[in-house]
Design brief:
Elements (H helix, E strand, L loop, with lengths): L4 E2 L1 H8 L3 H9 L7 E3 L2 E5 H15 L4 H10 L7 H11 L8 E4 H7 L6 H10 L3 E2 L6 E4 L2 H12 L4 H31 L9 H45 L7 H4 L33 H11 L4 H21 L4
Antiparallel strand pairs: 1-3, 2-3, 4-6, 5-6
Length: 328
């Protein structure tokens, strides 16, 4: 069956682009030159396939410059199917969560019925909400779960600006974890595919590995977060219970001005003898007043010390983990 032939206008129609764009791609070396037949230029299915490849890469956020580098790397005749499959696998969703939509009215109602333009602007800046130009007053919600968490925190009394600040801090920490996971898997799994343009077979194998390993990062973080929350929440509860507990309960004889007589009890056996825990050593540290005020505004006066302590412990743990993880 002979290969289809296209005039430039037909090629633009079938590819969903414009004649001007096709000519611009030719000038930049992204599209092979057409066959010259008399005064006419003849395009073929290879040109149509290339235009669709370029369009797919542009939709995934690649620039024309990076697309040209990619295409040039495979200009020796190798197919692009495998590498484009790898690109699609990496650029695809890393969660099974489906995006949702929400109107401004629904958003206001969900967060207490109060219109807060500053909070909405902050959410758009963080990518929690994406305005829909084709539907004014409506937003795309990339992660409905994340928005639901914010709504629950707000309903529990957390100010919206504090939720945004927490998300920014959390995002920095999570991006650090993701970076370490990528370094780890690159060194031990994907190193074999680096240093040279992979063949179609290698790119397909790499895409399969990405598909297999993709859920592992989230599963590991979920398990470790659950462990850390249980450990730290229990520790915080014990600290607050210790702070609330009275040092000693007064007796009637004490109030009357007499020392109470000690209770006469049998000495405890070895199994009964309590283990006395020494209270942790306390050292005063001078912090900038602006830092303390910022923390107080975020968590309240009563939680300043606990927040700073937890933040410091988390940073120490992160640095310890960095020391344990292999470096490329």
């Amino acid at each position: 069956m002979p290969e289809a032939e296209y005039r430039i206008e037909d090629l633009a129609h079938h590819s969903g682009t414009t004649v001007r764009t096709i000519r611009a791609y030719q000038d930049r070396g992204l599209l092979p030159k057409p066959e010259r037949r008399g005064r006419a230029n003849v395009y073929r299915d290879t040109h149509l396939a290339r235009l669709r490849q370029i369009g797919g890469l542009l939709d995934r956020g690649y620039t024309l410059a990076s697309i040209k580098e990619l295409l040039d790397a495979w200009a020796t005749g190798r197919g692009l199917g495998g590498v484009l499959g790898l690109v699609a696998e990496i650029d695809g969703p890393w969660s099974d969560e489906e995006p949702g939509r929400i109107t401004r009215a629904e958003l206001d109602e969900r967060f207490g019925g109060t219109q807060d333009d500053e909070a909405v602007t902050d959410a758009v800046g963080l990518g929690v909400l994406l305005p829909l130009p084709s539907s004014p007053g409506e937003f795309l919600v990339p992660s409905p779960r994340e928005l639901a968490v914010a709504a629950e925190l707000h309903a529990a009394g957390v100010p919206l600006h504090a939720i945004s600040g927490h998300l920014r801090e959390l995002r920095t920490q999570v991006e650090h974890i993701a970076s370490r996971f990528l370094d780890f898997t690159t060194e031990h799994v994907f190193q074999q595919f680096l240093g040279h343009p992979p063949t179609d077979e290698e790119a397909t194998e790499a895409a399969s590995l990405v598909r297999r390993l993709r859920p592992l990062a989230q599963q590991t973080v979920d398990a470790e977060l659950a462990r850390a929350m249980r450990t730290l929440a229990t520790r915080h509860l014990h600290q607050h219970l210790d702070a609330w507990a009275p040092d000693a309960a007064p007796s009637d004889s004490t109030e009357a001005g007499r020392e109470p007589a000690p209770e006469r009890t049998a000495p405890p056996t070895e199994k009964q003898r309590p283990v006395t825990e020494q209270p942790p050593a306390v050292e005063q540290v001078v912090l900038p007043a602006a830092t303390v005020r910022a923390v107080r505004a975020l968590v309240g006066t009563g939680n300043v010390a606990a927040f700073i302590t937890a933040a410091a412990e988390r940073e120490v743990q992160a640095r310890v983990m960095d020391g344990l993880l292999p470096h490329p």
